[in-house]
Amino acid sequence: MAAPRAMALCLIEVALLIYAAAAATSYSNHTVGGDAGWFFNSTTNKTSADYNAWAANQTFNLGDYLIFNTNTNQTVIQTYNTTTYNSCSMDDSLDTDTFQYDGGNNEFGSAVVISVPLTIEGTQYYFSDADDGKQCQHGMAFEIKVTHGLGLPPSLNQPPPPPYVPPPEPADQAQTPPITVVTSPPSGGMRTSANFSWLLLVLVLVSFLA
Ligand SMILES: *[C@@H]1O[C@H](CO)[C@@H](O)[C@H](O)[C@H]1NC(C)=O
Ligand SMILES: *[C@@H]1O[C@H](CO)[C@@H](O)[C@H](O)[C@H]1NC(C)=O
Ligand SMILES: *[C@@H]1O[C@H](CO)[C@@H](O)[C@H](O)[C@H]1NC(C)=O
Ligand SMILES: *[C@@H]1O[C@H](CO)[C@@H](O)[C@H](O)[C@H]1NC(C)=O
Ligand SMILES: *[C@@H]1O[C@H](CO)[C@@H](O)[C@H](O)[C@H]1NC(C)=O
Ligand SMILES: *[C@@H]1O[C@H](CO)[C@@H](O)[C@H](O)[C@H]1NC(C)=O
Ligand SMILES: *[C@@H]1O[C@H](CO)[C@@H](O)[C@H](O)[C@H]1NC(C)=O
């Protein structure tokens, strides 16, 4: 009886590990390039970090932020369009798939911190189009894949990119925002409890076996 019992315990551990790995437990802020930040030296044509290598070592989830520690000599362009990304330029880009984030300061070399919330799942790209694309061509560019994780937190639930469609009846408007805010946490909670009940079921079955 000892062997099946050990095996059952092993299965529980594997189930718990898989669960822990699959479920994000909180939102993260990812500082782009780590301590090196988001900088380009236009004398040497060198980036301060290898951004694709940096990105490959992170897990990006909905509701996380990218934090660009930089100065106004670099830009932060977000795009969902591979053509725009490969061109290193915003010139022919569409307003619907490409966005520039700026710290609101136009003076050369002023320190800025730019926070970009991740609000859409899937592949997206970031680059600096400064110096007529030279920065991007020399590595101020990277790709990330955003996974679902916990889903969007209420604070980011109606971000600008997927446009908010107002309710048709003006009379309903007063009631709609509270309803929207209340709806999303329970649906997240139900998913969590569904997952936990599955785990519980495994635990119960296993204790019967053992
Ligand atoms: C992450 O960044 C956002 C935007 O700057 C900020 O509001 C939030 O407090 C940060 N969260 C953590 C855990 O640092
Ligand atoms: C760029 O690199 C050169 C050579 O390493 C260095 O002298 C210069 O200070 C750097 N410029 C900036 C803005 O970091
Ligand atoms: C930097 O790159 C540009 C082209 O993007 C090139 O003309 C220039 O010579 C390069 N400078 C150095 C120091 O490599
Ligand atoms: C990710 O970064 C950590 C800390 O720098 C390092 O120990 C680890 O090997 C890296 N992982 C990958 C897959 O690059
Ligand atoms: C990407 O942007 C280009 C313009 O730069 C546009 O012609 C093209 O249709 C866009 N691609 C998609 C998939 O939207
Ligand atoms: C920013 O760019 C300007 C103009 O190219 C240059 O003179 C200055 O040294 C740069 N500053 C930093 C901090 O990179
Ligand atoms: C378990 O949780 C994950 C992540 O929240 C979710 O994608 C999945 O649908 C859930 N599974 C069940 C059975 O609810």
From TrEMBL:
It comes from the Eukaryota. InterPro entries: Cupredoxin, Phytocyanin-like, Phytocyanin_dom. It holds the Pfam family Cu_bind_like. One of its GO terms (molecular function) is electron transfer activity. Residues 28-148 form the Phytocyanin domain. Residues 1-22 form the signal peptide. This is Cucumber peeling cupredoxin-like. It comes from Sesamum indicum (Oriental sesame).
